[in-house]
C-alpha cells in the first residue's frame, strides 16, 4: 500500500461519511417538507447525492463503467423532476395547502375511533377537489 | 511522485464535491421557502456531484474515460438549471407563497 | 486548410471518446469529421467564424467562473450562523428576443450567484428572476445585462 493509496482511501472514507450525513438531511426534508414542491426538490437533490455515491464507488473499485450508470441515473432523475413539475402544475388543490406532516403522523399514533371519521371526511372532500381540477 | 500528485488532486476533488453536497443538504433544511431551497439544490448540489464525477475521470487516468466523465459533468450542469427553472415556474403558477422574508414579487404584479 | 486542421482535431477527439487508438479508428474519425464539416460548410463560411468561436469559448469560461462563484456563495450563505435573507422575484427586461438565446440566458442566470429564473412573460419581453438577495436590484439587473446578455449577443449575432 503506497502513500497515494492511503491518501485516496482515507479521502474516500471521509467523503462517504459526509455524503451519508447529507443524504440523511435530505431525506429529512423529504419526510418533513411541508409542500409537495419541497419534497420534489429534495428528491432531485437525493439523485445528485446518489450520483456522488456511485462516483465514489467507481473510484474505490476501479470499475469505470459506473460513470455510465451515474450518467443514466442523472438522466432518469432529470426526467423524473420534469414529470413531477408537470404533476405539480396539474395538481388538484393547487398544492397550496401544506400536505400533512408525515413525520408527525408517524410519531404520534392516531386515536382509534377518530380514524374512521377522518377517512370519511377525506372521501367526502375528494369530489370537490376533482371539480376544481377540471375547471 | 506523479501518482501521489494525482491522488492528492483526486482527494481534493472528492472532498470538495462531498462538501458541496453537504452544504446543499444543510441549505435544504435551513432555508425558509421552496424558491430559496432551490437555489441550494440547483447550484451547490450540481457542483457537488459534478466534482465527484470529475474525480472519477481524473483517477482513471485514461483519456477516453476522462472524456466520458467530462460529458457526464456537462450533462448535469446543463440539465440542473432546466429542472430547477421548471419546478420554480410550476410552483409559482400553482401559487406557492414566497417566505415572509421576501421583499417583492414582480411576477405576481405582472400577472394580476 | 482550416477545414483540414479542424477535421484533424475532431479525429483526435473521436479517438479519445471511442477509446481505441488504432490507425483504423483514426482514419475513420478523420473521414467522419470531414463528412460532418462538409455538411455544415455553409454555416462555416459565415462571417467571422473564428471570432465567434472565440466568443463562445469566452462565454463558456465566464459561465464556469460564475458557477464556481455561485456554489461558493450559496455555501457561505448557508453555513453562516445568522442567515440574512431578502429574497424576492424581480422582472428583467430582455434585449435578446430569439427563443434559443432566451433559453441560454435563463440557464446562465440560474447558475449565477443568488439568482434563479422563474418564468418568461407571454410576449417574451420580460424574464422573471428569483433572487436570494434583493437589496440592490438595479445592480443585479446591470450585471446580467452587461455580463451574460452582452456576451450572448456577441457570440450569436
Give a verbal description of the structure.
The complex is a heterotrimer of chains A (135), B (112) and C (157). Chain A is mainly α. Chain A has helices at 3-32, 36-61, 66-89, 102-107, 112-134. Chain A is flat, with a radius of gyration of 21 Å. Chain A starts with a helix and ends with a helix. Chain B has one domain (2-97). Chain B starts with a helix and ends with a helix. Chain C has 157 residues and is mostly helical. In chain C, helix 5 (99-110) crosses helix 6 (137-156). Chains A and B meet through helix 1, helix 2 and helix 3 of A and helix 1, helix 2 and helix 3 of B.
SSE order of chain B:
HHHH
The 3D shape of chain A can be described as: flat
Helix content range of chain A: over 70%
User: What summary fits the major beta sheet of chain A?
Assistant: none
Q: Which two protein chains have the largest interface (Cβ within 8 Å of the partner's Cβ), and how many residues from each?
A: A-B, 56 and 54 residues
- Helix segment tally of chain A: 5
> What value does the Rg of chain B take, in angstroms?
18 Å
Discrete helix count of chain B: 4
Rg of chain A, rounded, reads: 21 Å
Question: What does the oligomeric state look like here?
Answer: heterotrimer
| Secondary-structure element series of chain A | HHHHH
Any idea how many domains of chain B?
1
Summed over residues and divided by their number, the pLDDT of chain A gives a mean of: 77
Please provide the count of β strands of chain A: 0
Report how far apart the termini of chain A are. 68 Å
Q: How would a textbook summarize the main sheet of chain B?
A: none
Mean pLDDT of chain B: 83
In what range is the share of β-strand residues of chain B? under 5%
Low-confidence stretches of chain B: none
Give unreliable regions of chain A as ranges.
114-135
Helix content of chain B: over 70%
Amino acid at each position: 500500500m503506497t502513500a497515494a493509496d492511503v491518501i485516496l482511501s482515507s479521502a474516500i472514507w471521509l467523503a462517504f461519511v459526509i455524503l451519508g450525513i447529507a443524504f440523511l438531511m435530505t431525506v429529512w426534508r423529504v419526510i418533513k417538507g411541508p409542500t409537495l414542491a419541497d419534497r420534489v426538490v429534495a428528491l432531485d437533490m437525493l439523485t445528485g447525492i446518489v450520483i456522488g455515491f456511485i462516483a465514489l464507488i467507481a473510484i474505490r473499485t476501479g470499475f469505470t463503467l459506473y460513470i455510465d450508470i451515474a450518467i443514466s441515473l442523472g438522466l432518469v432523475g432529470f426526467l423524473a423532476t420534469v414529470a413531477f413539475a408537470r404533476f405539480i402544475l396539474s395538481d388538484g388543490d393547487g398544492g397550496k395547502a401544506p400536505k400533512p406532516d408525515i413525520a408527525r403522523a408517524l410519531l404520534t399514533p392516531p386515536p382509534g375511533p377518530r380514524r374512521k371519521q377522518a377517512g370519511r371526511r377525506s372521501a367526502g372532500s375528494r369530489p370537490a377537489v376533482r371539480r376544481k381540477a377540471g375547471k | 511522485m506523479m501518482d501521489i500528485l494525482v491522488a492528492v488532486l483526486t482527494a481534493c476533488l472528492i472532498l470538495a464535491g462531498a462538501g458541496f453536497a453537504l452544504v446543499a443538504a444543510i441549505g435544504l433544511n435551513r432555508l425558509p421557502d421552496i424558491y430559496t431551497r432551490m437555489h441550494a439544490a440547483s447550484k451547490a448540489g450540481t457542483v457537488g456531484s459534478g466534482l465527484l464525477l470529475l474525480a472519477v475521470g481524473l483517477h482513471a487516468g485514461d483519456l477516453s474515460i476522462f472524456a466520458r466523465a467530462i460529458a457526464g459533468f456537462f450533462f448535469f450542469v446543463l440539465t440542473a438549471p432546466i429542472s430547477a427553472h421548471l419546478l420554480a415556474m410550476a410552483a409559482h403558477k400553482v401559487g406557492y407563497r414566497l417566505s415572509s422574508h421576501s421583499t417583492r414579487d414582480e411576477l405576481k404584479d405582472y400577472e394580476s | 486548410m482550416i477545414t483540414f486542421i479542424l477535421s484533424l482535431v475532431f479525429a483526435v477527439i473521436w479517438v479519445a471518446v471511442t477509446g481505441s487508438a488504432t490507425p483504423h479508428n483514426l482514419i475513420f474519425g478523420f473521414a467522419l469529421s470531414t463528412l460532418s464539416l462538409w455538411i455544415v460548410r455553409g454555416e462555416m463560411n459565415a462571417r467571422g467564424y473564428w471570432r465567434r468561436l472565440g466568443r463562445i469559448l469566452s462565454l463558456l469560461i465566464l459561465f464556469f467562473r460564475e458557477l464556481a462563484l455561485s456554489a461558493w456563495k450559496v455555501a457561505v450563505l448557508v453555513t453562516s450562523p445568522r442567515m440574512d435573507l431578502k429574497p424576492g422575484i424581480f422582472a428583467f427586461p430582455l434585449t435578446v428576443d430569439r427563443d434559443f438565446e432566451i433559453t441560454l440566458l435563463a440557464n446562465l442566470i440560474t447558475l449565477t450567484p443568488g439568482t434563479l429564473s422563474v418564468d418568461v412573460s407571454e410576449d417574451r419581453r420580460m424574464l422573471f428572476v428569483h433572487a436570494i438577495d434583493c437589496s440592490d436590484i438595479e445592480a443585479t439587473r446591470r450585471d446580467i445585462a452587461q455580463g451574460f446578455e452582452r456576451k450572448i449577443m456577441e457570440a450569436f449575432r
